[in-house]
C-alpha cells in the first residue's frame, strides 16, 4: 500500500488552483467535473507522477468547522518538504505569499508557515 492522493479542504476551488499553481508552482494534474464541484489535483513539478494533492471543497459543515478551528488555533493543515527553506521562503514571499511564521529552527528541522488564502495554514519544512 502507498499514498497516492492526499487532500486539503479549500473554500474556493478556482482560487485554490490559482494559488497552488501560480504562487506555489505546483502543476495541475486532474480537473474533472464532479456534480457541482470538481476533482482538482496538483502535483510537484519535480514529481508529476508522484503524490497528488486534492483541492477538496469544504462544502460539508464538518469540513468548514474543522478548517476554521485548526486555522484559528494556528495549526497547519499539511506540510510540504523543501530542500532549502531560506531560498523557498524568499521565492514565495517575493511571489506575494504571506507567512505567519518565518523560517524557524526546531531541533533538526527548520519550519515556516504561510496562509494559502483558501482557509489553511501550510507548513514547509527542511529536514
From TrEMBL:
Residues 2-127 form the VOC domain. CDD domains: VOC_like. InterPro entries: Glyas_Bleomycin-R_OHBP_Dase, Glyas_Fos-R_dOase_dom, VOC_core. It holds the Pfam family Glyoxalase. PANTHER family: GLYOXALASE/BLEOMYCIN RESISTANCE PROTEIN/DIOXYGENASE, GLYOXALASE_BLEOMYCIN RESISTANCE PROTEIN_DIOXYGENASE. This is VOC family protein. The lineage of its organism: Bacteria, Bacillati, Bacillota, Bacilli, Bacillales.
Amino acid at each position: 500500500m502507498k499514498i497516492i492522493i492526499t487532500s486539503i479542504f479549500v473554500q474556493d476551488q478556482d482560487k485554490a488552483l490559482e494559488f497552488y499553481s501560480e504562487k506555489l508552482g505546483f502543476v495541475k494534474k486532474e480537473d474533472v467535473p464532479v456534480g457541482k464541484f470538481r476533482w482538482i489535483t496538483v502535483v510537484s513539478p519535480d514529481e508529476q507522477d508522484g503524490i497528488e494533492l486534492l483541492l477538496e471543497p469544504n462544502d460539508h459543515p464538518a469540513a468548514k468547522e474543522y478548517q476554521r478551528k485548526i486555522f484559528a488555533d494556528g495549526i497547519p493543515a499539511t506540510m510540504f518538504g523543501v530542500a532549502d527553506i531560506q531560498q523557498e521562503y524568499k521565492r514565495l514571499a517575493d511571489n506575494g505569499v504571506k507567512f505567519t511564521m518565518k523560517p524557524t529552527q526546531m531541533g533538526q528541522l527548520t519550519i515556516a508557515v504561510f496562509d494559502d488564502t483558501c482557509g489553511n495554514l501550510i507548513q514547509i519544512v527542511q529536514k
